[in-house]
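Researcher: Before we compare anything, I want clean individual predictions. No alignment, no superposition, just each chain on its own. First chain goes here; please echo the sequence and then give the structure tokens.
Model: Echoing the first chain and its structure:
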Amino acid sequence: MALLLRLLCLCSALAVALPARPPSVTIGALFTFDSVIGSSAATAIQLAVDDINRDATVLRGTNLTVLMQDTMCSGFVGTIQALELMEKQVVAVVGPQSSGIAHVVSHVANELRVPLVSFAATDPALASTQYPFFVRAAHDDAFQMAAVASIVGHFGWREVTAVYVDTDYGRGGVDALGDALEAVRARITYKAAFPPGAGAAALSDVLVRANMMESRVFVVHASPDSGLDIFAAAQGLNMMDAGYVWIATEWLAAAIDSESGGSARRTGLVQGVVTLRQYTPESDAKSSLQARFDKSSTKSRRMNAYGLFAYDAVWASARGIDAFLGDGGNISFSADPNIRDANGSALRLSSLRVFDQGDQLLRKVLLANFTGVTGRVRFDPDAGGSMALADPAYEILNVGGTGVRRVGYWSNTTRRLSVRMPPISRQLQNATGQTQQQQEQELYSVIWPGDTTSPPRGWVFPNNGRPLRIGVPYRTTYTQFVSRDPSGGPDGVSGYCVDVFKAAVALLPYPVPVSFVLFGDGVKNPSYGELVQRVADGHFDAAVGDISIVTNRTRVVDFTQPYVESGLVIVSPVKTKSSNEWAFLKPFTPGMWAITGAFFLFVGAVVWILEHRFNPEFRGSPRKQIVTIFWFSFSTMFFAHRENTVSTLGRFVLLIWLFVVLIINSSYTASLTSILTVQQLSTGIQGLDSLLSSNEPIGYQVGSFARSYLMDELGVPASRLRELAITDYADSLQRGPANGGVAAIVDELPYVELFLSTNCQFRTVGQEFTKSGWGFAFQRDSPLAVDLSTAILTLSENGDLQRIHDKWLSPGTCDAQSTSDVAADRLNLSSFWGLFLICGVACFVALLVYLARILCQFCDYHHDTNGAGDQEGLSPEMERSLRRPARLRSIRDLMSFVDMKEAEVKRAIRSRSGERRLDRSMGASSVSEGPSSSLSRPSSSMSPV
């Protein structure tokens, strides 16, 4: 009982400490009643207030009322209506609808400390610390323009025309679009702004000027009430036909979604248009609200996305008020001494009151975190009070027939297009891993204006009456490439490069008017780097000429497909190698001649050894055999040897040797031909390595990039470089470094080929050490560069490019020569030691096999036929005396045996083998008769005849 009393006392104390909740709280609403957004927002706001007052968990006994003021699409009227609303001491304002009014009213809200919770002011500039009491209950246009940029990048368009209403809303959205396009390497090339409330004539005038530009990708950023007038004017100008791209921001989806009876009229104007709609996930609360909206609407309108955000904005304000009151907040207003009527003014500014607890209520509103009909509602104070949904996303819609169809989504989580529905929350995205983020950006097929499914090219040549300004280098040397037309032609320029450009332009499916402008003073060749920079700076629209495609230039301009292959080469003087009566000895070094001759004799001797016993052609007197060895050895050089080889080993050695002779003969012939016909370099420079290792001066052409390449890439000091005109090439090379000339010249291959065609005493040395080409330079992201690249490929395939080349760059008086000369070096042993090694090993193996066979036969031939018993009974001294002269006889016998014919040896071996078998058989028969018979019968020698 005592505990109960204590609780009652505590509750009473709390009731006394906390102020009582007010019976009602008033909020305001600022929007244009008679507008697509306002008509949807009015019903949604009222439904939200009714739902809040029926919900016992929100405000808990405090009734919420709303005061709505009509801004009438006027900035001035909107400001007055906002002041009147503030005069009625509202604690928060849902709105304003217009970004322009929001900029003005935000200053009033800052002064009176009344939070503004806007559901339709999407200007990104409002998310600024300048407006601390502005809370955006919708996505700003920075998200939407990022989605538009993703669409532009998906189809590869590079230039966009922005058509927008010239207000804070329109300008802020277009600025965000320009920033977003930079991420996909695109840009806004023309801004077509029209004033609010512009009539049909004014809109047509704006579109006519926009249509004169090259871009055919139009992004329309307007309001739902006037945006359709733009498409009506475009349809009258035939700008809704095939080849055009129209992308409308979310205002168009809002206009179509709001229409119930006249949707066919609206969609008939925007066939093929791509538009966006703020994505809100489907839910029971959203479906219920839409059903109740349809029953409550009195103007046959349906709810659009702005109505959904207005509904949640009211709920966010109510939850913030509830949290504020729950913490004991007390609503009070006080006068501001800075706001007063001066000099008898009747504006009644002194009636405006400051909301004393406005800062506290603002913090509570920003802490809102709940699930509404638009998804997860959460504010981020660090982002300037902008609403931050878990996954800000947009639906990509395509208008066709009598309605729209969804072709994809764009999610701020992935920052890319996808046909997959965006994830509900970041937590879900993290749980599913990176699969969706790694998914390839894509959309379903789009039906474009003109009922085509192929993505339009997105640009045409501008029809603004101004031809392209084409910069052409004013060359003073080798004018066959490009220069001023001395005959005074209609274009004022001529040359190979100009003809290629004209032929490529003729293949384009649209006319391209051009105006050629000479670049240079006509005294010396101009700087090509400066010409390219003029294109990048916008002084020229393009540059046509012998312009090399190098890295530093591709950073500032776009090049077409190369129409000439090029690269840096080295030119050096050459001299004719005079020949004399001993020129035939020069292919081989002395060591090579000595080793070759020695091997001829060595192989001849080996073959003689292998053939001597078998082949009668290798037998005879010693003098004849020596002559045979020499004759056979050197006759194999010409494959003219008369002696035939009959032994297997001899044929094996000869086969190997003839292969070696074939290689030696071929190499000798090639080297001798080169020595007698090829010109030799008069300097020691044989390529890039020798050029860099020397300290001799190097020439380069005036205006060429060769200077920067040699210095920056190869580290050649500037003191070694000499700037030369092509007309000075020959004189500088002939004089050489000793007489003030240069040792070599580095220039591009096309110039060098033309120079060498009339200067036969010079050659290129080494290989090309850069790989590039000549192309036409255009400003960055110019679509004309892409189309001309295709045209250049066509010229190459049909042979026109070669015909233009032959017309201007015909060969000179010099004979056709190789692009690189190779000095004829003498051949030495290092090039052939492998062949000699193979031949030597073959000879050595053949001799070993031959000697082993000879020794085996010799043992068989000199086998002791008398048996071991012949020497029985001899003393050891007598045996040693007999053995020593026997060794000498064996050596003489071996030499005689080697000189014997193979057939005689075989007959002797067979004969002695038969005698040994006969002796063994007779000996066996005498042993079988036994000793008794020898005693009983006298010896035959002693018996009488």
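Researcher: Okay. Second chain, same rules.
Model: Second chain and its structure:
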Amino acid sequence: SMMGCNRTLMNKHKPWIETSYHGVITENTDVVLLDPPLVALDKDAPVPYAGEICAFNIQGLESPFEAVVLNGTSGEGQLRARGLVDCESQKEYTFIIQAHDCGSGPGGAEGKKSHKAAVHIQVNDVNEFAPVFRESEYRAAVTEGKIYDNILQVEATDQDCSPQYSQICNYQITSARTPFAIDRNGNIRNTEKLSYDRQQQYEIQVTAWDCGQKRALRSVSVRIDVKPVCKPGWQGWNKRVDYEPGTGSKQLFPKMHLETCGGPLSSARTTVELQTGHIGKGCDRETYSEKSLQKLCGASSGSTDLLPAPSAATNWTASLVTDSGRDSELIFTFDGRQAAKIPDWVVPQNLTDHFTIATWMKHGPSHGLRAEKETLLCNSDKTEMNRHHYSLYVHNCRLVFLLRRDFTQVDTFRPAEFHWKLEQICDKEWHYYVINVEFPVVTLYVDGVTYDPYLVTDDWPIHPSQIDVQLTVGACWQGGEVKKPRFTQYFRGSLAGLTIRPGKIESQKVISCLQACKEGLDINSLESLDKSIKFHFNPAQSILVMEGEDLENMNAAVRKVSYINSRQFPTPGARRLRISTSVQCFGEDTCITIPDIDAVVMVLQPSEPRITISGAERLTRPESDFGAAGGIALFQDLHIISTVTRADNKVGSKNSDPPENVLEEIIHNLDYCDILVLGEELGPEEESLQVRRGALLGKHLDATNSTSGMSVYGVDSMSSYEQVIRQVRYYHRRPAHLTERRFRLTCSELNGRYTSNELNLEVSAPEGSRVQRLNSSDVYTPLMFPCAATVVIVMCIAALVVVVVLGIYRIHLTHQQEIRLEETAKEAGTSWDDSALTITVNPMEVREEEPLSNEDEDEEDEEEDDEITSAESDYSEEEVDIQLPKVERQSRKGQNWDKARISY
């Protein structure tokens, strides 16, 4: 009773603590530093239990702290973290704390609690995080030539919770020697003007520090593109386009587009020009000679070449300046000082009301104010007078053709001068000019396009006179009315392939073919071209003009422009390309100008063909065969093949294996085969090479021969050449004199660019065949006896008469056959080639033993059936024995056979 009362009074007072506490804890440690310190006081002291502090209680179970009593008597306590505290997840905590005394007895019964005090704890930061950049990489673009205040800003962040450790205090560019700087806020600027040509892209590394000097673990990459100042023009094209021969059409600018720098366009016009003028006469023309081309294009024969390659026979061009570029056919350059007189025997005499003059010409503007006439071709009086009968000249970029005819009829005014004014005459490029005269109409073709004269002047005709005329090239001959005859009105420019063709004018088709290009521009997939694009090619397909209003359609159209070369073996080398563009803008006075583009198509070296001719190299025939009607066939077993070596990359082979070279036979055309006589030239009296006219029928081939050999020419297949040359025969009128003859055959393609091997052939008659010939009645023997006595002379003459009569009889027979043959040909409607080659029919060519028997006649019939052409049936009887045109014979010493002596 008493005791219980006392006990109740023993714990009179509650513990006392401060009303609020402030604490600090560093993250990742467990001790809280409190201010003021945690101490609980109790006035019940020194009473046991009641005056002691037993516990501090924290209210709020989620709080990660606990309070412990360090000393119950003094009331000291401590605040600790129950686990690791992380500033980044929570920076501060607030909770309630109460102190408990130990109560009145050992069990802590009837203990008292202090009032509630607020505790506010701040978590102190540790610099545990490094800065990290927001982006994995940064990109920006600048225009060249400007200094920027700020190109772009990089930004790093730091996950630390305190301002000191989470703020970024510094950025730095770590790449060496870059024209950029960065400030403390991450702004990058350039320190100098950048140039697109010098460097199109920069890549720099940037790092960052927080304010606790912790550096970013990873730098960031910053890419800065330098854009060129927007210049209007074509973009996305290559300066050089390689062209592999035989691959057809190749797009030139597959990725090209026009940059207009935002300028609004209303229309654009683009001209693509393939400049082939530097190659021969343009368009890879050196591939075939003018003569072969005319044959290829089906031009009528009988044209006279006024500018042939100089040679012993054609020496009038020897004094002219030639410019035969690599591979190219001959080009003659006139600088206003050279001219050539055409020999009378070359000049076509029968120019009637129909004839054609054709030439390639390259000519620039004339110098000086009063430009002189510049003469290409002039036919004027040789002496006494100074009249121009016909001439072709250039005057102030006009082409003038003068034609003054002498008319025996009544004098009337007639067309005499025809004028054309054309840009082409002075544009310093090669053009093909053809003047077709069908008096009184004269038509000019330039590159296959027809032009009528803009002016025709009439004049009185020239009075007929007996004065000889002189034909000249490159100037006019002033023969009369001057103290000293001289050239005048010189030409300045280049000419090639100048021909006159009497009696026949060329068709438009032939003229187009003669100047047609085997290489040119093309549009890849025409049908896919937008309908709004207008386009136009020049006849040679070397210039293409495209026009359109929509820029995208225009870009698409230009991407389709292609180069094409249909030659099997084109001349390798560069073809220049120029693209010029003009644009119209909407309602603007000043519009952008688009710079021209110069590019080049590089035609690569084609696989070179190797032409191989094979056949017998020795030929032994009995003597009688040589004198027989047709002589002997020299190359009966001739074979001509052509091969190229190609690298064969076998499919599936190991990469280490080199490609095997494979010989592949190819088919292509030849353009001449020459049979040369080695050693002494042929004796024109007794020896000849002949080919039957019929052998050439239906082929693009022609033949000429001389005492030095025979040339078969024209662009035709190897098999055509094979067929014709197998029929070339060697004839010897006096086989007894034949010891041995040697011939050499060579063939060529592309004007001599590819030449075959040489096939040498030895021809002989065996000794034995001569012995049997004793006392054979050789028709010619009488000519060899000394006719001493009159009787003998009479016999000689008689023998001659017999020979002549027999010859004439045979001619008569032949002529009858010709007429028969021509009639059958007319019935069959065959049109035969009446080229210049005529057949040699020799009245002396008679069998040795007996006069012509019926049997022989039949044989002759069969043999000569093919030989006669419609051309020959026009000749009168005396003319049948026309020899093939002979070329002047050189001295016997000059055995090396001059190629040019064959009249091409």
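Researcher: What stands out in the second chain?
Model: The CA atoms of residues 649 and 659 lie 5 Å apart. Additionally, The first strand starts at residue 20 and ends at 26.
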